[in-house]
Write a structure and sequence with these properties.
alpha+beta, 4-stranded antiparallel beta sheet
Length: 374
């Protein structure tokens, strides 16, 4: 079978799956219309549900027929309280009227160990008199300190364990066999490790100082790359938008900031607080600009990774939504190949974003450790 035939077979299989699901949905809808009004498909709500963090790991199904892994909720509210998030998702569905817009807003009140708390947009609030109060779509009740193991946290654990297992096996191979021709996983990873060392670390950091920064650059490169790839897998242990979470990218950017700042030498700080060639009268203007520049560099790292990964997920989900918006299976002939193309493109983006984050981090570190040129 040729490559073109295999591609056509793949497209036909995907479209067939959509046809079966769509037919089932139509049959189910036909049975339900006699009892209840069909709920309008909300594209924005569906996309946000898939890209944001959650206290459950949804596997398949929808509404009352969904199958999920319910993650542990850990709250600090007058002491530590732990229970399963199922006490929210299978809790009491309540509605409240917004004081300003007068619209009805739905939320989930906890039951059992979660009694007295409510889950709204994946945030946990304390209820007052058994209710939440809203204004302009925002809950005005007190938030609790939430240290729960959410979907993104679980994905982070999966990614970290995966990196440890893979890198551990590679290290074990070299420890056992020495500097020999690599085999297995080591054969695949060695060129990538050398690329990070030579094309990222050595190319951007002083040749006498780059060695001690290679472990850090390797760590952030493989962490971002592996978790980007996990995010493209639509089922467990993938599907979480970890590297599209601004908190995660913020932490990675802060790590680069700290390494850069604490590696800065006399030459680096003199360029910030006493820029060579700048008149003394202009230093009160230049110093704040240089200090802001220190912070804008990691900010750019944070936003670039967050925006690119999240945008990829949104585009794929939006393309698939075309079928359900138009309520016609034939649209799958357009949206599915386009979504498949974007998914393949995302494999390149997953690697590229890891490469760019590591390269720019090395560039910032290199500028901090560079010696003065006379």
């Amino acid at each position: 079978m040729t490559a073109a035939s295999k591609f056509k077979l793949l497209i036909f299989t995907i479209l067939s799956l959509f046809a079966v699901n769509f037919t089932f949905a139509n049959e189910h809808k036909g049975e339900a219309t006699s009892h209840e009004t069909e709920e309008e498909f909300n594209v924005g709500e569906m996309i946000m549900h898939h890209i944001k963090d959650a206290h459950e790991w949804h596997l398949w199904g929808g509404h009352d027929n969904s199958v999920s892994i319910y993650l542990p909720v850990i709250l600090m509210d007058g002491g530590m309280k732990t229970f399963s998030s199922s006490h929210f998702y299978h809790g009491e569905h309540k509605t409240a009227v917004d004081h300003k817009t007068h619209e009805e807003i739905s939320y989930m009140a906890g039951v059992g160990p979660a009694e007295g708390y409510a889950l709204f947009h994946e945030k946990i609030y304390k209820m007052e008199n058994g209710e939440l109060s809203f204004e302009d779509g925002h809950a005005h009740n007190d938030r609790v300190n939430d240290f729960s193991i959410t979907k993104n946290v679980m994905s982070l654990f999966f990614g970290a364990i995966l990196i440890l297992l893979i890198m551990g096996s590679v290290a074990k191979f070299y420890k056992k066999n020495g500097a020999v021709a690599p085999k297995g996983v080591a054969k695949f990873l060695e060129p990538i490790v050398i690329m990070v060392r030579d094309d990222i670390a050595k190319a951007n950091i002083d040749k006498h100082k780059y060695h001690k920064y290679v472990p850090y650059l390797l760590t952030i490169f493989f962490f971002i790359w592996f978790n980007n790839l996990l995010g493209l897998i639509p089922f467990l242990p993938g599907g979480a938008n970890l590297t599209g979470n601004i908190s995660v990218t913020l932490f990675l950017a802060v790590c680069t900031l700290l390494v850069t700042v604490f590696s800065g030498n006399k030459n680096y700080w003199s360029h910030i607080f006493a820029t060579p060639g700048v008149p003394v009268a202009l230093l009160p203007i230049m110093i704040p600009i240089e200090v802001v520049g220190i912070l804008t560099k990691p900010f750019a790292l944070m936003v670039r990774l967050f925006a690119n990964i999240t945008a990829g997920h949104i585009i794929i989900l939006a393309l698939i939504s075309i079928i359900f918006i138009n309520k016609n299976m034939a649209w799958g002939g357009l949206s599915v190949p386009m979504a498949l193309f974007i998914s393949v493109l995302e494999l390149l983006v997953a690697f590229l974003q890891a490469f760019l984050f590591a390269m720019l981090s090395a560039l910032f570190i290199g500028a901090a450790v560079e010696e003065a040129h006379h």
